[in-house]
Amino acid sequence: MNRARNTTVKEFCALDPVPYFVDGEWSPGVADPIAVFDPANGLPVATVACADEAAVDSAARAARSAFDRGTWSRARPDERARQMNAWADLVDRDSEVLAEMETLQTGKPIRESRGDVARALDGLRFYAAAARNQRGEVIDVSDRHHSYVIRQPLGVVAAIVPWNVPIVLTISKVAPALAAGNSVIVKPSQTTPLTALYLAKLWEEANLPRGVYNVINGPGRSVGETLCLHPLVTGMSFTGGTDTGLHLGELAARQNKRVMLELGGKSPNIVLADADLTKAIPGAANAIFYGQGQICAAGSRLLVEAPIYDQVVEGVAAIASSLQIGDPLDEVTEFGCLTSQSHRDEILGWVDRATQDGASVAAGGHVASVPGLPNGAFMEPTVLVDVPPTAPISCEEVFGPVLVVQRVDGEEQAIAWANDSSFGLSAGVWSRDSGRARRIAGRLEAGVVWINDYGVFNPAMPFGGVKLSGSSHREWSHLALDAYLEHKSIWEANS
Ligand code: NAD
């Protein structure tokens, strides 16, 4: 049963299947359609057309032809910016449609989806402006030459997107790649393809060039991998699981493609004894429970200095127990459902194993029931205390609403434990002493550190991780634009 309220969402989801979009044409697909489920009731919300390897080849050829035609790749930057803004205007107009679709396919509260759509829109406009702001460089090396560096698009970029924040992660790849002049092919997660497909509808409505924004669906291992390794695809940007990303990165490296990887995390959030707890406690709860904990940057390890440990545990557990769990479509819902029942059950399995390893449950730990939605993938926000730092749940990514709290004796131990991880995506530090907090931030092995805050984003600030959390490229900011550009050195002999 489709629970959509918005007529446009209903109509779009009623297409059977929702076609995918290649070279400005809608395709009914070549393989069995994929069902997209509403995790709040476990029922299909739509079916989408599915590609196969041959369809990937056609998409790559179409994207390359569009690139070679130059209607986008060689368009004047101000023209590209104008067209991206025309697309953004339609995203703005249909933001409620996109938010509802995002909630139906992910299970996140509608208020959170609205925030995601706003973030995607802001990112799109940021890169529309950036399209006009690309610069070359003159490097004088001798009086016999005029020597300079120009920046050019890579060609065709594959964007592989996971299920947790689909619209934001689609735009985080597509917008800089397009601003740089590339053609893109998006392969959304099979479980959450709707918003990337709806963006294609808006691309078409804005009358933007064919073959430049393409979306295909299909399983990662066949369709996704074939796309990334296609000889005409020169760059790939992947967000998803660490093992998948490393596997893909290895294969793509053999072809020397430009590879951007955003992978998992197990982010430490340090609360020092001198922190303002009226901010740190809600901040720590929000760091893990936002997005139902299914956020790569979630602050899933809370490291608390001994003197305030009990107070922080009590405060975070009280917030966890008071969050309004409910129908993701309800305006008042603060905490929606997980992506699927099987994912929820896996997370509950993590909680069971942690208690066997010696952890105690300070809040949650069970399936949550929501009236009228007996088959929804709901679970209680969970806080585990007294967790040994070497227990698997302290080291591995759970990707759900489970906070692990550990007592630390002082700053040095907090830093050592924070860095004792194979991941290095993000971290938090809470202290009234800003010099101390900055010093700690400098020593944390993470791509992003928040001081006295957590999880704030802006398209102008780079985002990405170190160690197993990602490749050296960054998403967002001017750095992401650069990641989708080649630098060409030109030597011109003076006549
Ligand atoms: P996943 O790795 O299973 O899938 C991600 C995407 O990759 C999907 O579109 C999938 O179809 C595709 N895929 C799978 N195998 C592939 C292959 N062999 N070749 C090409 N594509 C393939 O991950 P998921 O379960 O969708 O997402 C959850 C994971 O993503 C978590 O580990 C999380 O930490 C990570 N993540 C990281 C960030 C970040 O910015 N660092 C952001 C969001 C999610």
Structural features, described:
This protein has 495 residues and is an alpha/beta fold. It has 16 helices and 21 strands. The strands form six sheets. It has a seven-stranded mixed beta sheet with strand order 14-15-16-13-12-18-19, sandwiched between helices. Strands 9-8-7-10-11 form a five-stranded parallel beta sheet, sandwiched between helices. It has a three-stranded antiparallel beta sheet with strand order 5-6-21. Strand 18, helix 15 and strand 19 form a beta-alpha-beta unit. Helix 5 runs parallel beside helix 6. It is globular, with a radius of gyration of 23 Å. The mean pLDDT is 97. The structure holds nicotinamide-adenine-dinucleotide.
Helix-strand layout with pairing:
Layout: H1 7-14, E1 20-22, E2 25-27, E3 31-38, E4 43-50, H2 53-69, H3 77-93, H4 95-106, H5 110-130, E5 137-138, E6 145-153, E7 156-160, H6 166-179, E8 183-187, H7 194-205, E9 213-215, H8 220-229, E10 233-239, H9 242-254, E11 258-262, E12 268-271, H10 277-289, E13 301-305, H11 309-322, H12 341-356, E14 360-363, E15 382-385, H13 392-395, E16 402-408, H14 410-419, E17 423-424, E18 426-430, H15 434-443, E19 448-451, E20 466-467, H16 477-483, E21 485-493
Parallel strand pairs: 7-8, 7-10, 8-9, 10-11, 12-13, 12-18, 13-16, 15-16, 18-19
Antiparallel strand pairs: 1-2, 3-4, 5-6, 6-21, 14-15, 17-20
Bound molecules: nicotinamide-adenine-dinucleotide (NAD).
Nicotinamide-adenine-dinucleotide binds at residues 160-164, 187-190, 220-221, 224-225, 228, 239-241, 244, 248, 262-265, 296, 397, 399, 425, 465, 469-470.
